[in-house]
Structure formats: C-alpha cells, structure tokens
Amino acid sequence: MKRTNAGSSQTEVPASCTALLEAPPPCPLARQTCGMATVNLQTQQRHYCFRALCCKGPPPPRPEYDLVCIGLSGSGKTSLLSQLCSESLENIVSTTGFSIKAVPFQNAILNVKELGGADNIRKYWSRYYQGSQGVIFVLDSASSEDDLETARNELHSALQHPQLCTLPFLILANHQDKPAARSVQEIKKYFELEPLARGKRWILKPCSLDDMEAVKDSFSLLINLLEERDFEPSRM
C-alpha cells in the first residue's frame, strides 16, 4: 500500500494502482483536483482513458466486393479508377487486356477488374464476368454518334447477360466537362434505360475528372446497392 496526500489528510492507495497514478495523465480528464476526491476521480478517469487507448480492439474489416468495369476505349475507365486510387495520371494508356485495382472507401473495398474496350477485346468480355458482384459501365458522353451507338449496344448486352443481369449497375456518363457532352437525361433516353433496366438496380450519374467528389458519391451509392444485396434472402 502507498499513502497519498490529498489536501490535509492521507488516503491509502492499493499497490496495483500505484503505477497508474504515478504515470503521466494519459488524458486531460485525469488532471482535475478536488481535495479528497482527487485520488478516486483520477484513478477512475485514468482507468477509462487507459482502456480507451490500449484496450480498444482493431476496427472490423471492411467488406470487399468484386466488380467488373467495362466501356469502350477512350471512355475514361482507367483515368477514373487511377484517380480514385490516388495514382498519377501521367502516361495513362488504354487497358489492352484487363487490370485489377483495389479501390478503398471508408465502408468498403472495391476490387475492380477493368476490361479493355477495344474492338478486338470486347468480344471476350463475358469470359471475365464470373464472380462479379456489381458492374461499372463507363461511357464517353461527348463521343461520336457511332461510338455512342456501340456503347449503347454493349450496355444492352451487359444488362441482359445471365451473369450480370441480377447485379447492381453503376453507369457513368463521363467527360461531362467537354462542350459536346450529352446530359444525363439525353443519355437515359438514347440508351432506353427506363424500359430496358426496369426491375433492375442501376444508377446513372454524370462525371468527369474535374469533380472526383461527385465520382466518389456515385460509387458510394453503388456500395449501398451492394450492401442491400448482401441482406437479401437467399433465393432457392
């Protein structure tokens, strides 16, 4: 036991508390003084501070989702994903096969498999769909009419593919910063999304590299859809 002065009297402090009382206060709450109450108050407060600092377990692991990202060459898939991963945009080149990026968010990690969008690669897209939990489709909203028609056909094909048709879709109308960019309303009408995707879970959002906060918000909406899917009852 150790005797501790508190005002004009003394109080007995258990030996098990001596080290904690003699150590520097771990937080400002433990610095209060009020006569006889000081020892008990400090001991209790230091105990709570010690537990908060040293006994708090690691945060629970963030859920991970496997996504496939598709779109024509030049739609901006690689640049958007690189920006989300805080990577440099210098020397960015179009993906010729596929690449995988782990895109971190506060409440989830998205493992995004980006597939190249060249003519000779798109016919192999379906080989990489297996295991996907969601789809990101990026289109160039300022592209030519021919390219927009091709993008429309590819999106329709993806929405109806047996391995993707039940998954959440995030459709990004990219390059909104360009003068020739079409609005989201124009894209929705031209791509016939309302009749084609009726009953499916999809999000259509405008985006550009100039407003990455909006891009992150769009991905957060996709994460919400993925989380909702996790809680759906299993279908027999």
Automatic annotation (TrEMBL):
Leader sequence segment: none
Residues involved in GTP binding: G71, L72, S73, G74, S75, G76, K77, T78, G117, N174, H175, Q176, D177
InterPro entries reported for this sequence: ARL15, P-loop_NTPase, Small_GTPase_ARF/SAR
GO molecular-function term, one example from the UniProt record: metal ion binding
PROSITE patterns in alphabetical order: ARF
Entry binding sites for Mg(2+): T78, T95
Pfam families: Arf (PF00025)
Keyword annotations from UniProtKB, A to Z: GTP-binding, Magnesium, Metal-binding, Nucleotide-binding
PANTHER family in UniProt: ADP-RIBOSYLATION FACTOR-LIKE PROTEIN 15
Family listed: Belongs to the small GTPase superfamily. Arf family.
Protein name, per record: ADP-ribosylation factor-like protein 15
Source species: Pipra filicauda
